Amino acid sequence: MAQLDLFANDVRVLVDDRTGRITYRPNLVDDATQRRWFESLLAQAPWRSERRVMYDREVDVPRLVAAYPADATQPGVVPEMRSIVEAACEMPFTSIGLNLYRDGRDSVSPHNDHLNELRPGYPIALLSLGSTRRMTIRSKTAPRRNLDLDLEPGSLLVMSYATQRTYDHGIPKTHDPVDARISVAFRVRL
């Protein structure tokens, strides 16, 4: 099991004000651990494609998705990942969602998580595995803030509940050659 360095102080605070709190920890786990987790999830997660209605037509969602409940029935590396993320965030999570960005054509448009599905006051934690991908984080109101953050393998981004009201976040398409990335989203759902 990978060990969390409890004495490391490499958490970067990106936002901490009335709009919420966003932190980034570039090296939650070492490269060998994140690769092992990535390869395990890539091979074993119940990946599926989805379709969604956008702009009055049904389109393919440009990524694959999977999900696990945060309980004792989790397979493979999921309990290990959950334990490390919960220790880093000092709280339990009740749901784990996965997004597989196969290459630069896969993306997610700027959005915020559905607040009606989340327990108020609890953050969302995003663990990145595989290739580095850029996330855009943009404030919805003044003062306008635009953050472009390269989410590195083994990193953890934590966004407070409040930021889901005040910021959008997304993974844009890129023409740069990129390998696959898995985003593991930990949430506390109602």
How does this structure look, described?
The protein has 190 residues and is of the alpha+beta class. It has a single domain (12-187), classed as Alpha-ketoglutarate-dependent dioxygenase AlkB-like (Jelly Rolls). The chain contains three helices and 13 strands. The strands form three sheets. The protein has a seven-stranded antiparallel beta sheet.
Number of helices: 3
Please tally the β strands and state the result. 13
Average pLDDT confidence is 91
- Strand portion: 35-45%
Q: What is the molecular shape?
A: globular
CATH architecture: Sandwich
* Percent in helix: 10-25%
CATH superfamily: Alpha-ketoglutarate-dependent dioxygenase AlkB-like
Which stretches of 5+ consecutive residues score pLDDT under 50? 1-8
* CATH-derived topology: Jelly Rolls
Q: Which radius of gyration do the C-alpha atoms yield? A: 16 Å
The structure class reads: alpha+beta
CATH class: Mainly Beta
Concise description?
This protein has a single domain (12-187), classed as Sandwich (Jelly Rolls). 16% of the residues lie in helices and 38% in strands.
SSE map:
Blueprint: E1 12-17, E2 20-25, H1 31-44, E3 51-54, E4 57-60, E5 64-69, H2 78-89, E6 95-101, E7 108-111, E8 124-130, E9 133-139, E10 146-151, E11 156-159, H3 163-166, E12 167-171, E13 181-187
Antiparallel strand pairs: 1-2, 2-11, 3-4, 5-6, 6-13, 7-12, 8-11, 8-13, 9-10, 9-12
Name its key features.
190 residues; alpha+beta; seven-stranded antiparallel beta sheet; four-stranded antiparallel beta sheet; globular; disordered N terminus
